[in-house]
TrEMBL record:
One of its GO terms (biological process) is glycogen biosynthetic process. It comes from Salipiger aestuarii. The lineage of its organism: Bacteria, Pseudomonadati, Pseudomonadota, Alphaproteobacteria, Rhodobacterales. This is Glucose-1-phosphate adenylyltransferase. HAMAP family: GlgC (MF_00624). Transmembrane segments: none annotated.
Amino acid sequence: MPKSNLRKNPRLATRSMAFVLAGGRGSRLHELTNSRVKPAVYFGGKGRIIDFTLSNALNSGIRKMALATQYKAHSLIRHVQRGWNFFRAERNEFLDILPASQRVSEGMWYRGTVDAVAQNIDIIDSYDIDHIVILAGDHIYKMDYELMLRQHVEAGADVTVGCLTVDRPEASAFGCIAVDGADRITSFLEKPKDPPGLPDDPDKTLVSMGIYVFDWAFLRERLLEDISNETSSHDFGHDMIPDIVRHGKAQAHRFEESCVRPREGAPAYWRDVGTVDAFWQANIDLTDFVPELDLWDKDWPIWTYSEQHPPAKFIHDEEDRRGSAVSSMISGGCIISGSEIRESLLSTMVHTNSYSSLHRVVALPDVYVARHARLENCVINSGVIIPEGLVVGEDPDEDKKWFRVSPQGVTLITQRMLDRRDAER
């Protein structure tokens, strides 16, 4: 059915819920997730990674959501309580936070993605829904889940799996999906050496996004079967989805059919910001003249918790001491005092002082940069105080002595690293 016709029909989203899995640490982000789970990491100047998944659900018309948390969840829970507290129970809409809380037995936390849903069957039953959308809370993208729900119902599928189309050589790093000519899934392969090509394009492969649509009655039965299976690892990608592919009907949904694009012909934007390099690049990309990710779109806004900050301020206008920012994003509460900022993203309440320069820097909230600092190709963790005269990004060998330098040469700076540097020098 054409997308235009799908949008005219009654929305399935009103009888659906979003179950967001947000319990994984995201260890490849290293120190950025020492005190917070990956979905709670700051992104884009004023938001968090989790805001994209929740905003997609809200903008798709889903008003019933649950957020399963586990690893160091306080920052995430606090953000959701402050920024996503506008749901009204009297209108049958809500966002429930479901921390791992030994609901099944003492000592049993969430054992996997399937188990995180299974341990909350009674809560989901109370929602009175027809469909459930299982979502990961740690990716950056815009997607209309209503269109995926439509395809699921029309295909009569047991499960519909959201898929990215990638070049075949790159697909080996993902869970790969083979399909027939009608996009019915014929096999689900975890990181194969020889990924399957598409029937209509042998040079491309479909890979799983970790997004699944089920009828709740069907999934409920499968959850009960899984939790009683001692050989299961209780994971959707490893256990349940491959089993449905073998014994039921699994349908692939191509992301390009439901992604929300900033303009006609724009590429389908999806990013896993799970490494320091990927996180830095996705933030820096927002400073492009026409970024692929449109944060200015009023038709598909990214909702978040908006703290009350004054506008950004730029002061001093002297030679070598001019507060300026070029090709950059500067958030509220920032003070650019006699500093030169280029191709950088500064989150809320960043303060840079005279004669300092930042080039291709991602600064998380509440960073303070002292005078004469020169920083290039950096990610600065929140709350860091950059000392006077610090130079980073010009001598990789020196940087590696004190900071974490990524494979692509991006330097991650935390306060603990700076404190160790000061103590040992």
